[in-house]
Amino acid sequence: MDKPLMLITGGSQGIGAATALLAAQAGYNICFSYHSQASFAQQISTQLTELGAEVLYVQADVSIEADVLNLFDQIDTRFGRIDALINNAGILRKKLVVDIDVKELEKLFGVNVIGSFICAREAIKRMAVSRGGKGGVIVNVSSIASRVGSPFEYIDYAATKGAIDTFTLGLAKEVVAEGIRVNAVRPGIIQTEIHAKGGEPGRIERLKSVIPMQRAGTAEEVAKAILWLVSDDSSYTTGHLLDVGGGR
């Protein structure tokens, strides 16, 4: 039987890359998008190939519909199937609400929310049994921020993840009869490059004391939760928000 295909947006670093590596080990072929770091994408692609996966990586800004359509067109041509979508691509910038720029806010919601909607729409078109698909799984990467609000840090980012939580709950009910399960994983403070990209490389050290487990999580720990939600071990789980936050 052909290997199932997993699509991971933002798969060249962090949680996306860790998920790709675990999925390859679990027997998936992998397609992942990356935004700008082609060298990281190539490195991950090489590692995935060494694990026996067939790999496709595509430059895409998920907030741009044409980029997403091109991504799925390439999947159709190369694999002719999609079995799992991981909506992982996301951005943040540390900023108080009083200092927010509208263009930055539009970009944040474009990537974190609209991008997930567009990718899910295209995946559903291919997965839905009423359209000739065989079902599938969608996992949205949300955040503990959606629950705590991230005051004085990332209220705008937290709001995008609140939208993702609601999206997950509603979509799960909308497509369950199509053979598609939809869940979200909500990471807490995780050791990835996103903190530095967001303007605070020392954030983990500053905040680890508020985590009951007194440490940040790893990208692989989040990836393991994602792989469980994708697997048949969670076959009776849909519309669930799974916290991976060290007890926070």
UniProtKB/TrEMBL annotation:
Record InterPro entries: NAD(P)-bd_dom_sf (IPR036291), Sc_DH/Rdtase_CS (IPR020904), SDR_fam (IPR002347)
Keywords, sorted A to Z: Oxidoreductase
Keyword Oxidoreductase: yes
Highest taxon above the source species: Bacteria
Protein family membership: Belongs to the short-chain dehydrogenases/reductases (SDR) family.
PANTHER family, sorted: OXIDOREDUCTASE, SHORT-CHAIN DEHYDROGENASE/REDUCTASE FAMILY (AFU_ORTHOLOGUE AFUA_5G02870) (PTHR43639), SHORT-CHAIN DEHYDROGENASE_REDUCTASE FAMILY PROTEIN (PTHR43639:SF1)
Name of the protein: Short-chain dehydrogenase
Species annotation: Cellvibrio zantedeschiae
